[in-house]
Specification:
single chain, alpha/beta, D-tyrosyl-trna(Tyr) Deacylase, Chain: A, two-stranded antiparallel ribbon, 37% strand
Amino acid sequence: MRAIIQRVSRASVTVDGKMISEIKNGLLILLGIEDADGHEDIEWLSRKIVNLRIFNDADGVMNNSLKDTNGDAIVVSQFTLHAATKKGNRPSYIRASKPDIAIPLYEKFVEKIELDLGKKVGTGIFGADMKVDLLNDGPVTIAIDTKNKE
């Protein structure tokens, strides 16, 4: 699994002109899934994201986690995170899972992050043409890959 997490002051997802998710302070999580992903990836990534200390404490130091700040989250599926750009100018998405594999893993990830965070999170609609609006705070943007664990 690959995730791009962005610390936001606000974020929302709109589909067909209708806002389906909206948060204030928290994280926008863009999630890419490949066939090799499984339960271990979900467990590790959710725990990492919820506990990553990227929110400011009273002294302005990034020392608090999403859980510490009681922040909110939106999880948006994004198959383009697995784009291969080595050859030519047209990205290949062959590593991105097809919906029959990706949707159950996406849903399990959302359930796990809700459990770890202790609250509901917003989502996009898998496969929809989504409009994602955000105000990146910091900006703080971090890429995480469960196969690299860097």
